[in-house]
Amino acid sequence: MKNTLIRDLFLKPEAYIESEIKVSGWIRTTRSSKTFGFIELNDGTYFNNLQIVFDDGLENFADIEKCSIASSLIITGTLIATPNAKQPFELKAKEIVVEGYSTPEFPLQKKRHTMEYLRTIAHLRPRSNTFSAVFRVRSAAAFAIHKFFQDRGFVYVHTPIVTGSDAEGAGQMFRVTTLDLENLPVDDENKFDPTQDFFGKETNLTVSGQLEAETFALAFRDVYTFGPTFRAENSNTKRHAAEFWMIEPEIAFADLTDNMSLAEDMVKYIIAYVLETCPEEMKFFNERIDKGLMDRLSHVLNSDFGKVTYTEAVDALINSGEVFEYPVFWGADLQTEHERYLTEVIYKKPVFVINYPKEIKSFYMRMNEDQKTVAAMDLLVPGVGELIGGSQREERLDLLIDRIKELGLNEEDYWWYLELRKFGTTRHAGYGLGFERMIMYLTGMGNIRDVIPFPRTVKNAEF
Amino acid sequence: MKNTLIRDLFLKPEAYIESEIKVSGWIRTTRSSKTFGFIELNDGTYFNNLQIVFDDGLENFADIEKCSIASSLIITGTLIATPNAKQPFELKAKEIVVEGYSTPEFPLQKKRHTMEYLRTIAHLRPRSNTFSAVFRVRSAAAFAIHKFFQDRGFVYVHTPIVTGSDAEGAGQMFRVTTLDLENLPVDDENKFDPTQDFFGKETNLTVSGQLEAETFALAFRDVYTFGPTFRAENSNTKRHAAEFWMIEPEIAFADLTDNMSLAEDMVKYIIAYVLETCPEEMKFFNERIDKGLMDRLSHVLNSDFGKVTYTEAVDALINSGEVFEYPVFWGADLQTEHERYLTEVIYKKPVFVINYPKEIKSFYMRMNEDQKTVAAMDLLVPGVGELIGGSQREERLDLLIDRIKELGLNEEDYWWYLELRKFGTTRHAGYGLGFERMIMYLTGMGNIRDVIPFPRTVKNAEF
Predict the structure, then answer these.
(1) What is the ipTM of this complex?
(2) Strands of A373-381's sheet, edge to edge?
(3) What is the mean pLDDT of residues A191-212?
(4) Which residues of A69-96 are buried (b: 16+ CB within 10 A; e: fewer)?
(5) At a CB cut-off of 8 Å and minimum separation 6, what does B75 contact?
(6) B461 closest CB neighbour out of A164, A174, A460
(7) How far apart, in Å, do the first and last CA atoms of chain B sit?
(8) What are phi and psi of B433, to 5 degrees?
(9) What is the pLDDT of residue B149?
(10) Can you point out the beta strands (E) in B33-167?
(11) Which of A132, A220, A462 is the closest to B219 by Cβ?
């Protein structure tokens, strides 16, 4: 008999009720009396378990009764509707075959575990309700992002992970090398010689694919990246990991307004997609992880995102009379406390803050006419603060070179980036969405370590 | 007036013919006489160009006439059907605004360039026909893969890029470090101390996400990875890059037959999807890159993939009487020449070779009853040779430990991998598809450097 997925039972029960079916999966819980027992079976294809009823009519009843949590079973039986019970149906077992036994040492017994402990068993935690929900939502959200951009004709570009340039200057990088650290090569003057490394020079892990994505935007018009990025920052916070995934769309013949419009559409699309495809998981998060979650997400879906300038935002913060840990003044970078106050208290909805002082933003952002601010945008959302950061890019060669010099960067390092401005430059814009931050936002999970399958942080690269 | 994408003109011309529209894009070619001119405009959204007709009725006629290739333009005009011309329609320009000038130094002038030269301008080559087609097909194929697995309920899992274990032992790895190579830390005995590195130990770039994917398969049943992987091999061939993307599905309650069935469905799905969504690009490849391409792909689509054992394949090669560079005997690894002979000459279609001698395969592959072969599978396809490699995994704890010991591996390094076999083990299987090899197969491109946006190979990490 063909195996039936538990997902299919829940999505179209009418096709299976009163039929004999075969299912397979892992025991989540089990209990029994002398003559009968119940098993909650999960086969990984659906958040909910299938209830199995078995009795001593089974010739291996004594064996099944003793099966530990996590044991894998193959069960043949009849699906019975149970309109008066908690679950809509149950499987009356005719035959149960043990595929693989577990033991009482299985760490995920039916009790509460701390998130910290669960991180130490990252190879098993996807078998818990919480992480089963987190990683299914992560998968759905990833696909939503691809579908959103592909439906609009965007070209997906794999920008390089190993990079020879520290072009964006966005923080500490990891070095990539094949040199033997215990026997480093030296040059004629007995100094360390990086040219003998695999790539013939120093290379690092990328912090952003933006600059490379721009080259593709000036060929394909609308492109996006979706890949891993890295920060070697020695910071141990709930929101930072050394390895995370990022989405970076880049659009040509487009300005900051087009960029905001794209970001708003994308965020709403991801939320709507996940609510539709993962209803059981989202219900679980709303009940068990973050009781305000569904209200917050619905509110975002139904809001027109606001738009204020940095100058207006700073004025509003100053005029609010609120006392902040970090002082607010024109020229200061906004901290999470400011960002959350703006989106949660003042504007009460997602809001784009645009036109930041050039001093606190990157060299590639387009200079505004005031010569003081650049066409940057940060999207702030309730509950999180900054979700997206982006900008219109400086497409004017002379102004871009001015900024590179002003910041003391090496013009030669940007030869190919500058050539984009020599050969048919166009207005263009783009932004970055940290994928894990989006997952935290969608699920209410409070620590980035709990939305990454095998997180990499300071002093931690287990598994 | 709103901008119209050139893609939309080609996909539904009837909606635009005789209408006034605005388009924007880059000049691919331009020619003019005293009073009128033609521009082939590409806006990146479609493979084909839009022909623009302009004349001296434009007040900036002299300027437009002189515009170099690659200049970006915004053009308003009327779309006219041209049933007797090569192109189905053209745009009669009423106004042309130059968004960004180019110069005659633009390297992609209208002449043949070598692939080698084009690699040196990887930031500009997507503006050529060949690379516009390659990278759009790459994007479409990536989405096809996600869609194939998501439609079947597979969970997409991001396995780690930085790894603390050389668990698979699949070749040379790149080290990841934040240590200052000119000032390495030492321990009390003045020996190099890797514990002072960012992650507290030696870490490397992953060669495969398989082992981690298995942990998720034993929770979600059907999962897949799609991410970058790395090989630090000092080999300078047309088929190897230091950084490439790989797809690794892993399925639980499944054996080698299920695995082959999944691989066959996937390959056919990707081909069908790309043929349907990129017809112009595929026509281009078939005409300009590889004249046998479409026939070969159609043949694969319409073949039931074959299945032979390694032992049968070796016999067939020996009995063929063909003289090979590498000798064929039972126990030898199959070389590309053998693989291609099998799929192209002997079986004349895609063929799975299964049950390889355990000596030439990895420790995690499931031991067959003969105790000599393991449940491995390689998919060989005409024109390429090996496209996919996979296996049923050893789910029996004792046999897995035996193999680990037999190969002299360190059992402790695999503690979490072994635990999967202790707590509800199940039959499971999976395979790896090298994404670039699939793109080469789909496009007929002969060098892996020409299907990666910014390839990384020995001594090369430019851009």
Answers:
(1) 0.97
(2) A155-156, A222-230, A243-252, A428-434, A385-392, A373-381, A351-357, A306-309
(3) 95
(4) bbbbbbbbbebeeeeeeeeebbbbbeeb
(5) B22, B23, B24, B41, B52, B91, B93, B95, B96, B97
(6) A164
(7) 37
(8) -115, 120
(9) 98
(10) 36-42, 50-55, 72-81, 89-100, 155-156, 162-163
(11) A132
Residues 63-82 of B with CB under 8 A from A: 70-72, 74
Predicted local distance difference test score (pLDDT) of residue B384? 86
Among candidate residues A206, A174, A185, A163, the one with its CA nearest the CA of residue B197: A174
Name which of B153, B232, B453 is nearest A212 (Cβ-Cβ).
B453
CB within 8 Å of A56: residues ≥ 6 apart: A34, A35, A36
**Which among A155, A157, A178 has the least Cβ separation from residue B175?**
A178
* Site from A48, A101, A123 to mutate, B interface, most B CB atoms within 10 angstroms: A123
B176/A174 touch (CB, cutoff 8 Å), yes or no? yes
Q: Which residues of B touch A204 (CB under 8 A)?
A: none
What are A164's two structure tokens? 């020879």
Reported as a pLDDT band with limits 50, 70 and 90, residue B166 is: low
DSSP A17-34: TTSEEEEEEEEEEEEE-S
pLDDT digit string (tens) for B338-352? Answer: 999 999 999 999 999
Percent of chain B at pLDDT > 90 equals 95
A 10 A CB-CB count for B76 gives: 16
| Separation of alpha carbons A455 and A237, rounded Å | 13
Q: Which of A72, A153, A252 sits opposite B424 (nearest CB)?
A: A72
Q: Is A426 on the interface with B (CB under 8 A)?
A: yes
Tell whether B416 lies on the interface with A, counting CB pairs under 8 A. yes
Backbone φ and ψ for B329, nearest 5 degrees, come out as: -160, 160
A385, B191, B192, B198, B349 from B188: Cα distances, Å: 46, 7, 10, 19, 62
Kindly write down the DSSP assignment for every residue of A134-145, as one continuous string.
Answer: HHHHHHHHHHHH
Question: Is there a contact between B422 and A461 if contact means CB atoms under 8 Å apart?
Answer: no
B195 touches chain A (CB under 8 A): no
User: Average pLDDT in the B125-138 region?
Assistant: 98
Among partner residues B70, B131, B156, which is closest to A139 by beta-carbon distance?
B156
Least confident of A154-168, B86-100, B122-136, B419-433: A154-168
Neighbours of A68 (CB within 10 A): 16
What per-residue confidence (pLDDT) applies to B110? Answer: 73
Q: Compute CA distances A398 → A349, A355, A367, A423, whole Å.
A: 38, 20, 11, 14
Question: What is the per-residue pLDDT across A25-53, written as a single tens digit (0 to 9) for each?
Answer: 999 999 999 999 999 999 999 999 999 99
Cβ–Cβ under 8 Å, residues B366 and B391: yes
Tell me which chain A residues have a C-beta less than 8 angstroms from the C-beta of B172. 178
Q: How many other CB atoms are there within 10 angstroms of residue B9's CB atom?
A: 23
3-state secondary structure of A233: coil
- Tokens representing A355 are 């036109």
CA-based end-to-end distance of chain A = 37
A169 has a pLDDT exceeding 90: no
Compute the distance between CA of residue B56 and CA of residue B439 in angstroms, rounded to an integer. Answer: 46
* Rounded Cα–Cα distance for residues A149 and A159 (Å): 16
Predicted local distance difference test score (pLDDT) of residue A384? 86
B 323-382 → A contacts, CB under 8 A: none
Taking residue A278's Cβ as centre, other Cβ atoms within 10 Å add up to 21
Residue B269 φ then ψ, to 5°: -65, -45
Q: What are phi and psi of B249, to 5 degrees?
A: -75, 155
Q: Is A172 on the interface with B (CB under 8 A)?
A: yes
Contact B352, B308 (CB under 8 A): yes
| CA–CA gap between residue B161 and residue B33 (Å, rounded) | 57
Which pLDDT score, from 0 to 100, does residue B167 have?
A: 60
Residues 108-167 of A with CB under 8 A from B: 121-124, 126-127, 131-132, 135-136, 138-139, 142-143, 146-147, 150, 153-165
